[in-house]
Amino acid sequence: MPRSVQEPHPRFARARSRALAAAPEGGQTSPADVADIAPYLRPDEADLLRRAFQVSSQAHKGQFRKDGEPYITHPLAVTETLVGWRMDAQTLAAALLHDVVEDTAVSREDIRHQFGDAVAGLVDGVTKLDQLQFESKRHAQAENFRKMLLAMARDVRVILIKLADRWHNMSTLDAMSPESRQRIAQETLDIYAPIANRLGLNVVYHELQELAFKHMHPTRYRVLEKAVAASRQERRELVEKINDAIRQKLEQSRIKADVYGREKHLYGIYRKMQEKHLAFTEVFDIYGFRVIVDDVPTCYLTMGALHALYKPIPGKIKDYIAIPKANGYQSLHTTLFGPFGTPVEVQIRTREMHRLAEEGVASHWMYKAGDVGLTEAQRMTHQWLQSLLDIQADSRDSVEFLEHIKVDLFPDEVYVFTPKGKIMALPREATAVDFAYNVHTDIGNHCVASRINGDYMPLSTPLKNGDRVEIITSESARPNPAWIHFAVTGKARAHIRSALKHAHRNESEMLGQQLLNQALRGLGAHPEDVPEERWEQLLKTSGRSKGDVLIDIGLGKKLGVMVARQLLAREGEDDNRAAGPILIRGSEGVAVRLAKCCQPIPGDPIIGQIRKEQGLFIHTHDCPQVRHYRDDPDKWVDVEWEPDLDKTFDVSIRITAAHARGVLAKVAAAIAAEGSNIDDVHMEEESGNYTNLYFTVQVQNRVHLSRLMRALRSIQEVSRITRLKGGVRGVHNPVRKDQ
């Protein structure tokens, strides 16, 4: 049964007593016994630990924690937790020193000078950025997490020190104010517990969750704890009966195994009650059993024996041995119909799997040189740590980075297969586009479709366990802004945003060049006639590159005519000669967009509106959105459709038709016959015997639309057709144009 979290971890109690014994009343510390907590260290490593303790105890001398105990008790407690994971001397020294830079006069350079770059780097990775100024507390918190996670990506020991630090802080949180307890507990539940889970530190994961639950919902915690204690007495006989039955069955099957009954954690019970809206009396599986055997074949023999003892519940068998979790966890899970119909959950694993489940990547170290001897679990964790660097590179700021990371920290995984049979773990609800980016960034950036289990499927298709996924790519393809709405993984979202940002810059630069050329022609100059020295002078004055200036023009931050005048040295000159329109293809990208308020199509008279930070929006001349801009030449751009466009454009129409069988089919057939595609359709009943049919159709131009509407008017049941400017979604108050 799990230990109650009412009292601090026994390891922490030992640390406090040792710290107090090492600091007698005279204030003199005695580091001689400190190395005894890590008997596996070599003599030179033990000396490093003693020196670190000496510096830490002197630096924290006279400082006390909120509970009144000497501050040195905290770094000692953190160090002893790491000793339990058999961490190396550098990590233990950094644990003793982890708060000295943040809370004392000792500097990073002092640590580096006395203990070397490795220890200094670990201490720096854990140290907060308190000396910097941030926009808000949220930004400060996000930036501190970003710093810590990136340091973790370079050296996983950073996060292990931080997890041990947070574990002890959570165990001594009662001395803090209620507001601080709530904030720290929420932060622990959101970030630190999921990181512990992601690294396979099962004990730390569950302890942090329990402690966070206790401090976030103290009353619920106490009530549930009492209920579990009462249930423990009531169900003891049943648990012992099941335990004995399992042992006897395994002995009869000649399977050597250790069997343990275990009580589920309070937070796990609470979460199940919340998610399934159950009362405590309705949660039957608060007890589980763990069977530890010698090897993998025996795991499967054990499950077979248990299925002969109690019938398995269909759909409740999970094989994490054949397909390990992303954090390396391996075990067989099965849920059985126990006595009186009580569900019994059993976990079956080898001793090595059990050690990995409890200690995760802490069981062997990935920071050692090279990848020689790394387990598959460690390689997977290493890949995840490296992906943090990719996500950071493609995130706009620390807040966005943290949001991407949070997604990856809750990996309720689905397991899918590549065409070559390699297993890939992705978060639940992940789509084919997430899979593509998980394979490789270039695959994601150039994907156009996917084949799932042999069938062509959209990239937005959510993946299920066991799916075989193949990605179809095209060299000319680029990420679509719509992908952001269904991409789940932090890596995919970060790369999509990055690609769109670069595409936006490139397209904005091209648009800026067009607008500048237009302005130069309006001033009677040819773009190629601008002397290079005029560009150099302008860039030197502004301190920006030519590309940046053109992007600013494309995004509406600068007026093209003002830059043109500077290049031509015609300050204040007002020249209204015709500059010639910018030709619109309708497929320029995110820098030039067709406005949804009026849905312009080729043949409509159009006007371009520059929106700051967004680029050029194309409207129809009669669009109410731009009517008041017509008299301000700085707000609009002269544009025309490029001739002979080979592209389709969305347009919305409303058809009022009589109630009659087969009308919708007739209308759809007429639309298809005119070479138009239906993108959206829905109906709305009108008073009397008529129905309004709303379609979004794709046409090539205004002539094509007119031909389509004539064909629809020829249908006997159709009484009226209206073009809607504003799209089908805005049908309650549309701007109409009859044709």
Automatic annotation (TrEMBL):
Gene Ontology BP, a term: guanosine tetraphosphate metabolic process
Entries under Gene3D superfamilies matching the protein: 3.10.20.30, 3.30.70.260, Beta Polymerase, domain 2, Hypothetical protein af1432
PROSITE patterns to which the protein is assigned, alphabetical: ACT (PS51671), HD (PS51831), TGS (PS51880)
SUPFAM superfamilies reported for this sequence: ACT-like (SSF55021), HD-domain/PDEase-like (SSF109604), Nucleotidyltransferase (SSF81301), TGS-like (SSF81271)
Coiled coil: 221-248
Positions of region (Disordered): 1-34
GO MF term list: GTP diphosphokinase activity; guanosine-3',5'-bis(diphosphate) 3'-diphosphatase activity
Superkingdom field: Bacteria
Keywords: Coiled coil, Hydrolase
GO cellular component: plasma membrane
Claim: DNA-binding is one of the keywords in the record: no
Residue stretches making up the TGS domain: 412-473
Pfam families, alphabetized: ACT_4 (PF13291), HD_4 (PF13328), RelA_AH_RIS (PF19296), RelA_SpoT (PF04607), TGS (PF02824)
Record CDD domains: ACT_RelA-SpoT (cd04876), HDc (cd00077), NT_Rel-Spo_like (cd05399), TGS_RSH (cd01668)
Record domain HD: where: 71-170
Biased composition regions of type Basic and acidic residues, renumbered to the chain: 1-10
Annotated ACT domain residues: 652-726
Family: Belongs to the relA/spoT family.
Its biological purpose: In eubacteria ppGpp (guanosine 3'-diphosphate 5'-diphosphate) is a mediator of the stringent response that coordinates a variety of cellular activities in response to changes in nutritional abundance.
Descriptive protein name: Bifunctional (P)ppGpp synthetase/guanosine-3',5'-bis(Diphosphate) 3'-pyrophosphohydrolase
Organism whose genome encodes this protein: Parasulfuritortus cantonensis
